[in-house]
């Protein structure tokens, strides 16, 4: 490895470094002459552990090199950006990248992952055999599920960088549709996130959590509890009795105060259940093992959610039960909110990108067919949400920026990526605050002078409605938010009579839409 690091200095940025070829050779030699339908049987016995560890080490070194020469930014570049030196360099090395990825193709085959999983199960069975001593176990070298996670996490990142058009889809397809693997990933994550807890979402030893969360479900969908008529009826007769006797209602007020405090305290406890404690600082304080498992799970599960229909998700409940789906949603929600609020760091960028994508897919599915309680989505920001005015200004600043960096702590990033953390009422107030801020900024720019400010006049010829409309509206820019008066010129070249009180503007927009979008 030291010799390879020395060769990196002399290596051109347009080629694959020696450590990359070492990685490809290791995979090819270990896999043998593979194809899509047969297991070549290249590796045997405990050598699997050494093979996985070598690939992990080489992949980390290759990723470090690709990041140092700027290929990471090339892989993340938006295809719609203007042509530049970065894209030209990518085109010149496209053939090299493709041929290199062909050498890594054995790891994209299902037999490869299946064999690794079989070795982990065999090691687990051997570990349970009391006939083997501890020394023999150490010499044997067992392969664990975490090693496989590090293995494929590095492969996914390599494919994302070297294959910008397709990305890591070949790897994710295999991981998502290998039977039982994604379930094994989540079980390993649960052991790290909820150590020693059988059912964290219900609150260990709390009858309130069990009745509040699981007591009011219908096919796994949360419903609001109905008010108890006996309690309401008792309060009603108590109030009538107090009015007849003329006695003060101090006792009733005191009981109502106690009930209100208990209800508020209970709501806070339920909120804490869905706010995962070990992720309240984002990925910064998460262990390396947890971050690796989270990255691989989010990337794999978000890929699976794209094709998982509602029958499988809600009725058959595969690959997870709805109870586990809620637990997954709470983990992702807490991770993303705190990662954006506290800053995740550039090294956690792949984890945050995959977690945000997976969270959005789960929230969209919950909006379409609810399976999570509303308090779950609000829990991470319950005690740390900034004031509405501050949040609105941060969001406005971020939207005005040409490019945002989600690795930097930003309230604007939280609002744009996880708006569901704010209650609907606060989002409405935030929207109104943004409108007021926009009005103030336009007044300062001289675009709005008062209630009777002059409207912008545009003249459109009936025979050239698209050309005139595009030319005049495109030049207004932000002034499109102001008042616009439209006047037409007939096909004979004469101005049409009439004042625009809204009808002519509507006619203009309708006619230009028909002309542009209707086929000739």
Shape: globular
Sheet with the most strands: spatial strand order: 1-2
Distance between the termini: 65 Å
Strand content: under 5%
Structural class: mainly alpha
Q: Percent helix among the residues?
A: 55-70%
Main sheet record: 2 strands, antiparallel
Number of strands: 4
Let me know the average pLDDT: 76
What's the domain count? Answer: 3
Domain HECT: 480-520
Protein name: HECT-type E3 ubiquitin transferase
EC number: 2.3.2.26
Keywords: Transferase, Ubl conjugation pathway
Describe it.
The protein is mainly alpha-helical and 520 residues long. The chain folds into 3 domains: 164 residues, no CATH class; 199 residues, no CATH class; 62 residues, no CATH class. The chain has 24 helices and 4 strands. Strand 3, helix 23 and strand 4 form a beta-alpha-beta unit. 27% of the residues are buried.
Brief summary of the model shown:
The chain is mainly α and 520 residues long. Helix content is 61%, strand content 3%. It has 3 domains: 2-165, no CATH class; 180-378, no CATH class; 456-517, no CATH class.
What is the strand and helix layout of this fold?
Elements: H1 2-10, H2 18-31, H3 47-68, H4 71-75, H5 85-92, H6 94-103, H7 110-127, H8 134-140, H9 145-162, H10 169-176, H11 181-193, H12 207-214, E1 217-218, E2 221-222, H13 229-245, H14 250-274, H15 288-305, H16 310-316, H17 322-342, H18 349-368, H19 374-378, H20 388-400, H21 411-417, H22 424-444, E3 456-461, H23 465-474, E4 484-489, H24 503-517
Parallel strand pairs: 3-4
Antiparallel strand pairs: 1-2
Domain HECT: 480-520
Organism: Rhizophora mucronata (Asiatic mangrove)
GO molecular function: ubiquitin protein ligase activity
């Amino acid at each position: 490895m030291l010799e390879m690091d020395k060769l990196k200095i002399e290596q051109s940025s347009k080629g694959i470094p020696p450590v990359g070829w070492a990685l490809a050779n290791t995979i090819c030699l270990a896999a043998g002459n593979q194809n899509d339908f047969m297991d070549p049987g290249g590796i045997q016995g405990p050598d699997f552990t050494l093979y996985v560890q070598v690939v992990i080490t080489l992949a980390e070194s290759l990723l470090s090199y690709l990041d140092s020469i700027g290929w990471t930014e090339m892989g993340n570049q938006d295809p719609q950006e203007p042509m530049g030196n970065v894209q030209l360099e990518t085109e010149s090395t496209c053939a090299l990248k493709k041929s290199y990825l062909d050498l890594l193709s054995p790891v994209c085959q299902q037999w490869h992952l299946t064999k690794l999983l079989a070795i982990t199960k065999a090691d687990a069975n051997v570990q349970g055999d009391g006939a083997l001593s501890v020394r023999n176990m150490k010499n044997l070298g067992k392969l664990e599920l975490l090693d496989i996670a590090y293995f494929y996490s590095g492969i996914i990142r390599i494919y994302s960088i070297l294959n910008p058009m397709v990305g890591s889809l070949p790897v994710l397809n295999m991981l998502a549709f290998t039977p039982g693997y994604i379930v094994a990933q989540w079980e390993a994550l649960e052991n790290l996130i909820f150590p020693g807890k059988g059912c964290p979402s219900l609150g260990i030893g709390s009858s309130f959590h069990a009745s509040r969360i699981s007591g009011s479900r219908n096919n796994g969908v949360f419903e609001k509890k109905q008010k108890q008529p006996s309690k309401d009826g008792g309060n009603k007769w108590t109030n009538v009795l107090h009015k007849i006797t003329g006695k003060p209602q101090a006792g009733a007020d005191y009981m109502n105060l106690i009930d209100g405090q208990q209800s508020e305290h209970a709501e806070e406890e339920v909120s804490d259940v869905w706010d995962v404690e070990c992720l309240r600082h984002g990925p910064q304080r998460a262990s390396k093992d947890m971050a690796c498992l989270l990255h691989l799970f989010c990337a794999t599960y978000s890929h699976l959610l794209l094709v998982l229909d509602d029958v499988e998700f809600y009725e058959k409940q595969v690959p997870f039960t709805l109870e586990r789906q809620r637990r997954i949603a709470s983990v992702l929600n807490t991770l993303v909110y705190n990662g954006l609020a506290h800053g995740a760091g550039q090294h956690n960028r792949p984890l945050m990108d995959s977690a945000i994508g997976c969270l959005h897919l789960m929230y969209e599915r919950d909006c379409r067919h609810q399976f999570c309680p509303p308090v779950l989505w609000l829990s991470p920001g319950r005690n740390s949400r900034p004031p509405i005015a501050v949040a609105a200004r941060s969001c406005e600043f971020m939207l005005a920026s040409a490019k945002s960096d989600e690795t930097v702590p930003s309230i604007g990033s939280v609002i744009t990526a996880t708006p569901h953390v704010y209650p609907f009422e606060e989002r409405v107030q935030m929207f109104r605050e943004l409108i007021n801020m926009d009005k103030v900024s336009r007044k300062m720019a001289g675009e709005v002078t008062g209630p009777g400010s002059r409207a912008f006049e545009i003249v459109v010829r009936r025979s050239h409605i698209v050309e005139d409309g595009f030319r005049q509206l495109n030049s207004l820019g932000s002034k499109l938010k102001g008042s616009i008066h439209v006047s037409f010129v007939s096909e004979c070249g004469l101005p049409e009579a009439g004042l625009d009180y809204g009808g002519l503007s509507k006619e203009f927009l309708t006619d230009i839409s028909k002309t542009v979008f209707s086929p000739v």
